[in-house]
Amino acid sequence: MKWSEISIHTTQEAVEAVSNILHEAGASGVVIEDPEMLHREWDVSYGEIYQLSPNDYPEEGVIVKAYLPINGHIAETVEEIKQRVQSLEAYDIPIGRAEITLAEVHEEEWAIAWKKYYKPVRISERITITPTWEDYTPASEEELIIELDPGMAFGTGTHPTTVLCIRALEKYLQSGDEVIDVGCGSGILSIAAAKLGAKSVLAMDLDEVAVKSTFLNSELNQVEGKINIKQNNLLEGISTPVDLIVSNILAEIIVRFVDDAYSLLPLEGMFITSGIIGQKEQEVREALIQAGFDVIEVQELEDWVSIVAKKK
Question: Per the domain annotation, does 122 fall within a domain?
């Protein structure tokens, strides 16, 4: 089978939104080429950082790549992607050059492209994310392994917002907690919660492809018995209380359902949010406080922020 490699030259701030657009267009995953990664002072407290090659990154901006099967509708799909990327400016998301280029690749080249960018990464004190094709041995009995296949999900689970959420889950989730993952995407946060001791997880996403990805990944990690997966718009129609809510989506969307999150949590219940670019932190913080939450922790990683709030 032949595939079309779609490359979008954009900004760091637009990476999450552009990735979501590609996912909704039918891409099974994205590759993010950010030249800042070449110059960052990496946190190596959790494990090895793999050597990066400057040849794999643009000189400026960020390139987000995805792969779509070539068919009779590919031209219309690409045009729709272009329009949706341009529309991000209406949400105050800078898109930079927003150049879109296409290249044709074969099945074998597509598989190799994924493996080039994806290695085991220790992202917290207890959790390591590893691709299914890597033979990885845990360093200790306490280490928890999450296996992902980029062909089944979008992203590799190592974006700063995902890392921030998992570290917060590791810190605040109590054994036996009941959890909701709003906008579950690949299901990685739901899987992490289950492995960290949650009694049950309700994983929800509006996109049916994300729902399928979460189901496949939960089976792959043998936690499907703990995770109930549902296609749903944010927290609409949900009335069963839970102990903890986690959501890694855009700040503009988080602020839409903070009141619903507050109503579903008990006193002292926790709300973990990320997907928040730095300049949007205050907007989300104010929405949480107005809903009745106490903001108890804010963490930053690169240009991204996570906020942990507790119901007063």
Answer: no
